[in-house]
Every structure is written in structure tokens, then in C-alpha cells.
Amino acid sequence: MGTGDGDGGGGAVQRRGCSCAKEDFFPEESFKSWANYRQAFRETGMRLRDRVTARSLDQTELHEVRARSGHEMKRNLTWWDLIWFGIGAVIGAGIFVLTGQETHEDVGPAVVLSYVVSGISAMLSVFCYTEFAVEIPVAGGSFAYLRVELGDFMAFIAAGNILLEYVIGGAAVARSWTSYFATLLNHNPDDFRIHVSALANDYNLLDPIAVAVITIVCIIAVLSTKGTSRFNYIASIIHVAVILFIIIAGLTKADTKNLTPFTPYGVRGIFKASAVLFFAYVGFDAVSTMAEETKNPAKDIPIGLVGAMSITTLAYCALALTLCLMQPYRSIDVNAAFSVAFQAVGMDWAKYIVAFGALKGMTTVLLVSAVGQARYLTHIARTHMVPPWLAQVHAKTGTPINATIVMLIATAVIAFFTSLGILSNLLSISTLFIFMLVAVALLVRRYYVSGVTSYADRNKLVACIVLILASSIATATYWGLSKKGWIGYVVTVPIWFLSTLFLGLVVPKARAPKLWGVPMVPWLPSLSIAINIFLLGSIDRKSFMRFGIWTAFLLVYYFFFGLHASYDTAMAATPMRRLEEGRDGQDPGNGKASEVEKGGS
């Protein structure tokens, strides 16, 4: 296996913890001089074709790419740490901020079913993430998985959007932190914000408390992952105790009459709320980025991820049911649902416990988000799609300090200026898009191995995936356009079902998971694709416009910088296999994929 030099190769380079030389930012050959850059830019078409069709190898991600950080991350996490990281990452602002809003405006008491639908979608994605995290335990999370199965270019677009979701989500949680902190002190949130009339509305209430909280979280995150884990599960245990208090105390004031009518907005309301409430499940993917730091990925990751999501779904359904039993849905407050509900039943003192629990939850969400987003950025930087300075791991702490600080500075700037209303409209779309791509990547991983899969079987796989995607998009589109029609579903749903059935019966699997695998393939990944696309169809048009604008910005950056840097790095390192090739990794003796092709840990 070849390695490159410091100009963009794959060799392990021992770096200082926070060096800032030019070579740390643009060491690639294309950026050595203006003449080199002009030549590289003239080759953009050829280089783009190469990156679109290039797929990485499991072994490349596990060894060569990881070595570019200079130092290893410390492997000191267990399944116990991952469960509490998962709970800490997920149970936060979503349940306290969005439950009241959706119950009052979109779904009524059937919000419990909305959480079930969102939870099923999230659990299907958890299965897909778990198989990848066990087989490719690196810090890159979905970026690394997509790079291996769908190629460099698609991985970059996906990663750029997940980083946006992390930054926007972190900023939204930080602004919510200020709101609940104000409630705890009997103040209006704007009492703690600085009004600047010269700035536009929605950007003129500066939030220094949000910045302070993000700064503290950053310090904790860069010091030690194991220390972060200890802080997280202590805080999460307290948070779980508060949730149990809310459920038990709330149920003492329950009135089953409040559940009637159960579905005042119909089935459409249930799914519309599910798309919004999916934000409450966002965060578990951050746990998969910690695979590189787990002691035993094959055991720890499945228990940690699936366990955390199961606990979270049960907690959400119980909290939502408790809220609806305490008050008629029309009376539920859209801003501070649980606090107002306790006031309404004569337990005014309980609002302080609710506010304290919300603060604890949001703090752990920020903390786990800080850890996860830094590891995403670290692995992206290892491929040189962004400056490799961001990939450096500190020798003493074993954490990616540069990436952590940069991501949290971006989060703090947005949280300082931008109102929660603007931020909340940007959240779920990127995550649903990534989860859909990871499910597609899992199908590719199981059914396509270069050198093993025949061209005929490859074409059948492509046709099945295209039909699954097309029928899912058509179903979501018909749902959005036709309020009462049903004819469209008679066409789209059978196409999805028959495409998945054909894939399962006719196309042979090319690879079996070595350690842990998703059950019922292709049905579970196909269902994950369908549900994620269906929920995407329930998101408002403005969010799609912002999604498109951000993706366009990513493309501009990629064409001018990321493409050329990653191309130089790949050419100096181990050659990547092409999407369309059927030769690389083949053992002519038995026609099966070699160990490098199959990956491995």
C-alpha cells in the first residue's frame, strides 16, 4: 500500500498540536504556485469525473486516511459511554421546545403517534449507521461510509450538509438554553439579550449567554473525550431523573378526557408533525463518529446506538402522552408546554424543575454535538477536501482541538445573532437527506463489490435503487399535492414493494457483514429510504430553498478548492477504485474480492 509525502499523501505526519504553517492548510501540489493552480483549474472536468467515480476502501479509511491526523485518538469508550452519549445527544431542546408547538398547531394528542413514526425512521437509520460504524470504525461517520460506497463527490455534498445541520442545530439549542435559563430566574429571555436596532429583525437580539455556554462546552470537549463522557453521563442521569419526575408528577394530574379528539387534524397532521419532530431525534449520528475511540466496536456500537435510541423513543412517547393527559391540546402552550401545563394543574413550583431538566438536556446535546461535529470535520480534513490543519489530533489530549474550536466558533457566531425562529426552519432537511443516502449506501455495500458483482447484477441493483428512490419521491410528492386522493398510491407503493422484492430475490448479495449486520436486508434499508423521503416531502419550501443555496455554496467551494486538494491527495496515496470498474481488488484465483476490497478492521 503506497503512501504519499507531506504534499498531500497518506503518510502519518507527526505534527504539533496547533501548528499554523502554510503547509498545514494548502500542502497540495495544485496550490504550490499560481501556475500550478491555473493548470489544475483547467483540468477541473477530468478531475471531477475522477472524484465522482472514485470510491475509497475500508482499509484506506481505517489506516491511511486516519494516519493523516498525526496522532491516534484514544480508544477508551465502552457501550456504557455510548448509551449515555446517545441519550445526551438526542434528548434535549426538541422534546421541550417542539412538542407543545406541534401538539397545539398540527396534530393534537396524536403527537404520540408522530413520535412513533419519527422514532421508527430514526431506528431504521440507527441500524444502517451501526453496521457501517462496526465495519468502518473511524471518526468520519456518514462521510466515511458514503466515501466508501457512493464515492468522493457525493460524500462531500452530504458531509457539508450534515455540518450545516450541526452548526444550525447547535446554535438553536444555545438560543433555547438562554430562554430556559431566563425561565429558571423568572425573567423574559430578551432581558438577557442585547438589542441592536441597526441590525435587521431576527438578527438584532444578540445573545452573549449562548456564546458563553458554547465556549464552556468547547473547553470541555477539547480536554478529553473520556472526561466529556463522564460529565455527559452524570448530566444525563440527572436529566433522566427530571424526565421521570415530569412523567410521574404529570400523570398524577392526568385526565383521559383530554385525549378526545385524538386525531383532530387527521392522518396528514400526524405525518406533518413527524417531519418537524424528527429534529428531536437528531444527534445519534454523532455517536457513530466516536467509533474510532471505542474499545470494542463490534460489541459497543450496536449496544450503544440501539440502546440509546430505544430509551429515547420510549421517553418521548411517555412525555408526549403525559403532556396531552394534563391539558386539552388547544390549551397547550407553544413555547414552554411542560412548564405551563404544570402551572395549569396547580403545580407552579414544578416549572423550575422542568426548566432545570431542559437546561441539563440542552447542555449535553451541545456537548455531544461538539464532539461529533469535530470528528466529522477531522475526517473530512484527512482527505484534504478542507484544509488538513483541521485534521490534527493533539498528542496529549488525543482530541481534534482545531476542528472542535473552528466548528464551535461558527456555532457561536450564528447563535449570537440569529433568532430561534430562523434557525428552526433549517434543521431536519439535511439530516433526513443524509440518513436516506446512508440507507442507499448500505444497499450498495451489501449488493455490490468490485470484482465480484457481475455487470448484469450491477445494472439490476442500479435499476432497483432508482425505482425505490423514484417511487418514494413520487409517493411523497403525491402526498403533498393531493389532499384526499388515493389513486397515486396504488401505483407508487407497489412499485416500491416490487422493486425491493426483486432486489431481495433476484440480485445476489456480494458481501456479508463480518461482525454485525442490519437484519432483513433489503427491506429495512429500503423502508428507511421511503420514510426519510416521505418526511422530507412534509418540510416547507423555504427550507428546501436554503438547502439548495447551501449546496450551491458547497459546489463552488468544491470546484475551486476541495476538488483539487482531494485529487492531489488521492493521486499521491493508494489508488481508489472506480464506481464502474469490476477489476480492482479481484483475486483471479477464486473470483472473490480480496481482503483490501472487502475492507476489514
TrEMBL record:
It is a multi-pass membrane protein. The chain crosses the membrane at residues 77-98, 110-132, 153-174, 205-224, 231-250, 270-291, 303-329, 349-372, 401-423, 429-449, 461-480, 486-508, 515-535, 547-567. GO terms for molecular function: L-glutamate transmembrane transporter activity; L-lysine transmembrane transporter activity. Residues 516-566 form the Cationic amino acid transporter C-terminal domain. It is found in: Membrane. Residues 580-601 are annotated as: Disordered. It comes from the Eukaryota. Its main location: membrane. GO terms for cellular component: plasma membrane. Keywords: Amino-acid transport, Membrane, Transmembrane, Transmembrane helix, Transport. Belongs to the amino acid-polyamine-organocation (APC) superfamily. Cationic amino acid transporter (CAT) (TC 2.A.3.3) family. This is Cationic amino acid transporter 1. It comes from Elaeis guineensis var. tenera. The lineage of its organism: Eukaryota, Viridiplantae, Streptophyta, Embryophyta, Tracheophyta.
